[in-house]
């Protein structure tokens, strides 16, 4: 739901780019909708600023779950704030895993994301990795948290 018609085009641009990026994730899939100084916070990944930071974190996600996909379930927006409910699905350790995330986005009038705060319950992801030994090596190589300190042991 958009409450301000002056923001409608910006919301549509962000929603379309966000949805397309999760339909076929790649570290650069969201480049067209990321502001140069975009800020990120999300469970299991390092907070940071800029598209290059996101490229690295997205790459880590795809090391852990190469078949990761997302589907927008619902969204709402008012002026520079958008909420997008996305269902993320992947295979982790040979078994399916589905997680729902709600992303709060701060958007610009031109339709780029200035800030992304993702919120989801990360325990099902951690438990899936722990319970599935086939996932351990991918998880270790990915650098996805918890235990983000192990990143210094991984090749750059």
TrEMBL record:
Pfam families with a match to the protein in the record: SnoaL_2
Domain of life: Bacteria
SUPFAM superfamilies found in the cross-reference section: NTF2-like
Domain called SnoaL-like: residue spans: 18-115
Name the UniProt record assigns to this protein: SnoaL-like protein
Organism: Pseudonocardia kunmingensis
